[in-house]
Amino acid sequence: MILVGLTGGIGSGKSTVSSMLAERGAVIVDADQIARDLQGPGSPVLERMAERFGSHIIRDDGTLDRAAVASIVFEDDAALADLNGIVHPAMQDEIQRQIDAHRDTGRVVVLDFPLLSENPRKGLAATIVVDIDPELAVRRLVDQRGMSESDARARMSKQTPREERLATATHVVDNNGDLAALTRQVDDLWQQLTDLSA
Ligand code: ADP
After folding, report:
1. Which of 9, 25, 160, 30 is nearest to 105 (CA)?
2. 20, 139, 144, 156, best to mutate for ligand 1 pocket (most atoms within 8 Å of CB)
3. What is the DSSP letter of 75?
4. Which atom of ligand 1 is least distant from the CA of 181?
């Protein structure tokens, strides 16, 4: 197994790069997806979140009201720390379980993790950062993902600054160009990653 990390700010194109790597044969361990799955109806994590933040965060159908939690933790750092304390240990366990399932293979395993720069992980053969001009990220989030400009800017202002994230990179994917330019870089990156096993 070649274990690599993939990260990038919101709107950077991280998910797009992750899909492109999957198409080329990578196993993706998707931290966001794992977090969502752990917060499914009736899950222990969801129960603990309801104890901490109130039962109104669970909808009538048992699913998590993500916006309700987001509005609580967005302006309250103590609440955010509590949320992380509930979700992160279970998430780390599941991430580890998924990685371990491929340990004895020759696969490239990509840990797709938005907070990788903030939570550096030992044992990564590479840390890939998808980089973009923040103004272009805002434009893509508004034009292509239907986000309001104020929401996009508010979320981005909460993130680790671009330079700090870049400082954690061993490989940078520059997503300021078009999708063809991105594809060429991912092809090149894939070659470099598979060469790591040689
Ligand atoms: P992230 O996962 O980092 O938040 P996405 O991969 O969802 O970002 O990309 C944000 C939006 O920009 C998506 O709608 C995606 O399809 C689009 N996008 C990504 N890269 C490019 C590109 N090079 N050119 C045009 N649109 C892009």
Report:
1. 25
2. 144
3. T
4. 23
Residue 74 above 90 pLDDT?
no
Query: Which structure tokens are listed for 94?
Result: 């599941």
Which pLDDT band, with edges at 50, 70 and 90, does 18 fall under? very high
**For 120-142, how does the pLDDT look when each residue is reduced to its tens digit (9 = 90+)?**
999 999 999 999 999 999 999 99
* pLDDT number for residue 77: 93
Assigned token pair, 120: 């550096």
Ligand 1 site, residue 175, Cβ cutoff 6 A: yes
For residue 111, give both structure tokens.
Answer: 């840990």
Burial of 148 (0-12, 13-18, 19+ CB in 10 A): exposed
Span of 49-53, 64-68, 127-131, 193-197 with lowest mean pLDDT = 193-197
> Which residue type sits at 79?
A
